[in-house]
Amino acid sequence: MQISVLAARVLLSVCAVLAALAAAPAWAQGPIVIKFSHVTAPDTPKGMAAERFKELAERMTNGQVRVEVYPNSQLYKDREELEALQLGAVQMLAPSLAKFSPLGVKEFEAFDLPYIFPDKAALYKVTEGRIGADLLRKLEPKGITGLAFWDNGFKIMSANKPLLAPRDFGGLRMRIQASKVLDAQMRALGARPQVLAFSEAAPALRDGVVEGTENTPSNMYTQRMHETQSHLTVSNHGYLGYAVIVNRKFWNGLPGGIRATLARAMREATAYEKTIAQRANDEAMEQIRAAGTTTIHTLSPAQQAEWRRAMLPVVGQMENRIGKDTVRAILREVGR
Ligand code: LMR
Q1: What is the pTM of this model?
Q2: Architecture of the 5-100+137-151+241-276 domain
Q3: CA distances from residue 92 to 141, 144, 244 in whole angstroms, order as listed
Q4: What is the reported pLDDT for 47?
Q5: What spacing in Å lies between the alpha carbon of 249 and ligand 1's midpoint?
Q6: Which of the listed residues 155, 198, 205, 225 should we mutate to test ligand 1's pocket, taking the one with most ligand atoms within 8 A of CB?
Q7: DSSP β-ladder status, 173-176 and 212-215
Q8: What's the CA-to-centroid distance between 240 and ligand 1, angstroms?
Q9: Cα(64) to centroid(ligand 1), Å
Q10: Architecture of 156-238+282-334 per CATH?
């Protein structure tokens, strides 16, 4: 008799614990895990800032949050990572601004317009001001919350021949990111653009599937693209940057205090990112130079003017696709 009373009590307390566990939110049962997937190498501005966010988030939440960073397309390639985020298979990404149109948010392609930002100061006016905030809000109906803009830098062009004038691009197969504006830009130069995921770009250059590309020095160097591209032009014709985004349901489901702490960690990681982006690109240019694999060309003012003339019509061509209001607001903000 005594044993069965005891057994009943044990059973009751087991049930009570199980019920409490079932009623408790998932985060109460262990650390909240944020899978942060991205496509670049760990030693790029994005890779280093993702690691900094991890450190800050884990420290500031006293281990209540664990951030797992997956670089180098280890988990997903460009397009798949956006789908994975929407499905909740990962919680955080930082795709380049050129990759948002598959979500149906074409306004982000404004950042791909050639020669739209005269310098980083002009760019920050956009990303850190009202236009940037409005753009991030456009992601909400897609189940995504935008947390920050991260920087990379201005792009250079590469191929296995000197690219000094628009005519040098004639017929060249150029790898681009999945942006219609970049497609139009390459066509304006007479090239044949080919969309490839970032993880496929370096192998495609090596195997001759494409003949050239554009990217930032840090991306080119960390993917060893310079080893198979004999010429590079410092053209600074366009910008490459990121939006750090989270699954909206996940973000809104976090306990308020944790969400606020993570937002603070993100602000600090973002400030850090801005301090390293340009340096990483400058160092990458030096490393490419030192590798001796690639001739580096700098355009004369006359050559620059010719590149601009060839590419500027893209702004008018793409205005309707991107949204006239967005393009004009950016042009006004940067004083163009
Ligand atoms: C690219 O695909 O070239 C870039 O978007 C990669 C990146 O994330 O910087």
Answers
A1: 0.91
A2: 3-Layer(aba) Sandwich (3.40)
A3: 17, 10, 7
A4: 98
A5: 26
A6: 198
A7: parallel
A8: 8
A9: 31
A10: 3-Layer(aba) Sandwich (3.40)
